[in-house]
Amino acid sequence: MNQKTKPAKKTPAAGPKPKAAPADGKKKALDPKQIVHADFLAAAAPGSSLPAPTMAEIAFAGRSNVGKSSLINTLVERKGLVRTGATPGVTRQINLFEARARDGATFHLIDLPGYGYAKRSKAERTAWGDLIEGYLRGRITLAALVILVDARRGLEEDDLELIQFVEEARDVQRRPVEIVIVATKADKIGRSASRSAVAAIAKSTGRKVIGFSSVTGEGRAELWALLRKVTLGTPEATPVVKDQEPEPA
Ligand SMILES: Nc1nc2c(ncn2[C@@H]2O[C@H](COP(=O)(O)OP(=O)(O)OP(=O)(O)O)[C@@H](O)[C@H]2O)c(=O)[nH]1
Ligand SMILES: [Mg+2]
């Protein structure tokens, strides 16, 4: 034992306050899916590469400023894990984060630079396009690609091109990539307009679409449950897709 270390003085301000016990005396059940650890692992800019793939990855793509980095912060419930900003072009490299849930399931989350940002030089856009395409085409552990669309704008040409690229660029040797579309910034248009936007995108793509807001947290639990299911390949204990009608008996 290190005798030189003095025991820390107990002051009222030191350490977190103990939480009050629930009024009914029962302990609240802890959510096994909750992220208990999230950290930045690595980044890659044009000319450099990410570490070798080791586990299932979930990548986030979409137009510049659509809210990719905010969505990652919301998903892992860490406000400042990923840098966000009001001006487009904040994320300028591929960033890799690790997130671990309470039940031990661990995921790699990939924040991709946004596309469609006109103020970049053509050479820069080409270099980044190559970087993103190279990642999407060749990363053998990529399990799911979340494509973010602004609920107010709906699908645009760039988004459709991305979906087509991922569908066609599938390498036969790797696992299929699950595409999940998220209509974000739902808080800006209200519930009914957001529902219509989700339905319109789902109809035109034939894919599952989740309405989301990083401000209100709407869609967070549903998206995370779906991503876990897709990535781990196991059904969740509780149903996550609420909007499906039961089959008639
Ligand atoms: N109201 C609202 N604002 C949001 C939401 N998500 C993101 N924002 C805001 O939109 C802006 C862009 O968010 P980011 O998360 O940095 O967007 P990004 O897609 O990572 O942008 P790039 O890194 O530039 O590609 C920021 O000002 C965010 O606060 C949302 O769900 N609702
Ligand atoms: Mg970003």
TrEMBL record:
Its cofactor is Mg(2+). Residues 54-233 form the EngB-type G domain. Residues 10-23 have a biased composition (Low complexity). Signal peptide: none annotated. Keywords: Cell cycle, Cell division, GTP-binding, Magnesium, Metal-binding, Nucleotide-binding, Septation. PROSITE patterns: G_ENGB. CDD domains: YihA_EngB. InterPro entries: G_ENGB_dom, GTP-bd, GTP-bd_ribosome_bio_YsxC, P-loop_NTPase, Small_GTP-bd. Pfam families: MMR_HSR1 (PF01926). Gene3D superfamilies: P-loop containing nucleotide triphosphate hydrolases. Residues 1-30 are annotated as: Disordered. Necessary for normal cell division and for the maintenance of normal septation. HAMAP family: GTPase_EngB (MF_00321). PANTHER family: ENGB-TYPE G DOMAIN-CONTAINING PROTEIN, MSS1/TRME-RELATED GTP-BINDING PROTEIN. Belongs to the TRAFAC class TrmE-Era-EngA-EngB-Septin-like GTPase superfamily. EngB GTPase family. This is Probable GTP-binding protein EngB.
